[in-house]
Structure formats: structure tokens, C-alpha cells
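Sat 14:20. Reprocessing the chain from the morning session after the first attempt stalled halfway. Input below, unchanged.
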Amino acid sequence: MTKLKELWSKLWFRAVSITLAVIIVIAAVLGITVGCLWGDVISSVSSITHLQARNDENKEGSVYSMRVKGGFYLDKFVDRGGASSDSELINFITSNITKGLMKVDIGESDVNCSAFTALTPDNDVLFARNYDFDKTNVCITICNSPGKGRYKSFSTVDMNYIGIDTEKDLSGLMDKITCFAAPYAPLDGMNEKGLSCAIFMSYQGEDYSNNDSGTVATDQRDDSKPNFTSTTMQRLILDYCATVDEAVELIQGYNLHDSAKSSFHYMIADATGKSAILEWLPAENATDKTDNDGSKRVLKVLYNDDDMYTGLRDADGFKYQWITNFIVNGHETYYENNEDKAGWDRYQHIYGKLHDADGRLADESAAMDILEDVGRRTWNGGGGVTVHSVVFNLTEKTVRWVANENYDKAGATYTYSFKTGKLTAV
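Finished this time. C-alpha cells:
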């Protein structure tokens, strides 16, 4: 009997040992699988930091930051030919990034923004930009390790564009995982090479004053070209281009499909001081103010050395450039009068400031002062809010960023440097 008990004890111990070994192996396999499938997502989501609390009384959303690990499937997105609509982009994001576990929505917007370039006395090239909208949550999105042949970048994302409720803070794991889609929705940004870009409403179409029914989105349909949507175009620029010329060459090879049922134009600049405004206009008559067929538009590039800027006072050959919310190419005939040009008053104010300074500003703070002048709360009594203002130093590869027009509030300004990788509140 004793020997039988001993034998049974050994058998039981062996069975338990084998079971534990199997459990450990299964756990290890699951861990490796989760790591392979979700490692970058987990690391990125874990980095999300709530930088500033929302202030509903002042119509200010929350401010977050996220350091994105890995390439977020962008190479795969490019290889498959991009996306020709918001729904195609959503399908790609949900199947690859969120693994089908949740839905990502792209919200609509009315983006009335401003931007300009300038030089400092030390010849640093500045690119300054306001993002005017309404209360919304934003995420400073830093892509540190995008992969071979791609560049690190700093960008700002309106989280409304990835389906995060503008009236609430991030809530739970699912919201945070959804934020991994943020790299596909930059509204402006700069990469480590000093190339910067930003998006602006252009209000195209015969009834351009009525965004609900009159604004006609660009929707190119050249079957020989791959496709991108508004914000993914900017992501491609930030990740794959080092200069304005490289960006224009890349963009010329794609169809553009404007997002969110709106029409947009863009501005890009690089560390050499070269900049350009990118607009999609009727091929046969670029100044046709009806402009009601978004499928037949073609890319028109207006560089800062174009003849229309000849009258500017040069600073060692540099010519500043600026933009708001109307078509700049041929605007004299595209619109019946200046009152029809959305943001014309802001455009004129920015021009006046730059003209008086000969295109040279003392530093990033001086550029931020001009952005403050035309902030949505300040300018003509505005409505809404300038969600963020940012000044990129394309020479030094640094960023000065302010939330919700709180230019003088301690802790509401952030600086970032590609040299140190540090995001610092000041």
C-alpha cells in the first residue's frame, strides 16, 4: 500500500508539473503573440499623458501627448495604394491598428486657420500656424521610431478626427487604443529634417460661403495614381520628405481626396527657406469661381519665389509667404470681391506685420505674437477658439506650442527639440 501511494504521488506530481509546463508554454506563446501584434500599440498607449485639463466654461478641450512607437503600418498603407475616402481609411485603420475591435470615426470640421513663414535675425526659418476651430481635445503626437527611410516627426492631432468625443476626456482602454490612429490625422507638423506642413480650409465651390451645402471637396479620379486623403497626405510628407521639392514630387504622384466633406489647401516649408502653397483647382480655368467638380481639379503650386511675391522686401533673397482660408492662386478673379475671401482680414493683417518687419521677426515669441493677434477669440470678437498655435523653427528643429490661446498662462506653452527629444512645459 505504501509503495502504491508513493507511485500515485509521483504520478500526480508529474502530471501537475506537465500541466504547469503546458500552461507556461501557452502563456509564453500568448505573450509573444500579443507582443508581436500589440507591442507598439501597448507602448504607444502607455505613453499617453494628460498635459492639460479641459475647461468647458472657456470652451477648451483637454491636451494630451503620445510618443508613437513603430511605423504604425504606414508603409503597408502606402504599398496598398493609400485610401480614396475617409471610409477606406477607417477600414484600414480598424483592420490593422485596432484589429477590428473598435470603430474609428472621422469628424467634420470648419477649420479657419492662418500661417506664415519668416526669418529671425540669425536667419533661422520660422513656420507659424494657428489652428482655429472650437472646443476639442488635441494630442501632440511624436513619432520617434517610424522605421528605415522615414523621418521622426512632431504633429498636432484634433482627436475629433479619430472619433474621440469632444465633450469628454479619454475614458478607458478602448479610447486610448483608438489614439494609436492619431498619426494618420496630423493637422500640422514638422519632421527632423526641418520640413513643415499644415492644412487650411479653402471654401471652394460656387456656394463657398455655405459650408453645409456649398463647399466642394477635391476628389481626384486618375486611375493610374494611388490615393490619399487630406491628413494622410500630410503624414506622407512628414515621414518621407526632407524638402519642399521632395514633397511636391510625392504629391504629384497621388490623387487627393479631401476629408470631412470639406475643401482644403496646404502650405509647406523647409529649412532652406523655400515654401509653397498647394491648391487643387479646375484644370481648364484655375480662376473659375464656380469650381463645382472636385474630380477635375489639378494641383497648382505657388512657391514663395513666384512673381506675385516680387514686391516683397527680400531678406537676403528670402521671401515670406502667408495663408488663411481662400484660394490664393488667381484670387483676384476667383472671387468677386475681397469680402468673399474667407480670412481676408487676417491675411491682410499678417501681411502688414511681415511687411513692416521686412519678413524678419526677433524670435519665436515675436511670431507667436502675430498668431495671438489673429487668434479666434481676439480677432473681430471671434467665436470658437484657436485650439493651438505653433511656431516651428525649421533651422534649429524646435517647436513652441500653445493651447487654447493661453499665451500668457504658465504651463500652457510647450517646447520640443528634436535634438533632445524633450517636451517641456514653460
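The longest strand covers residues 125-133.
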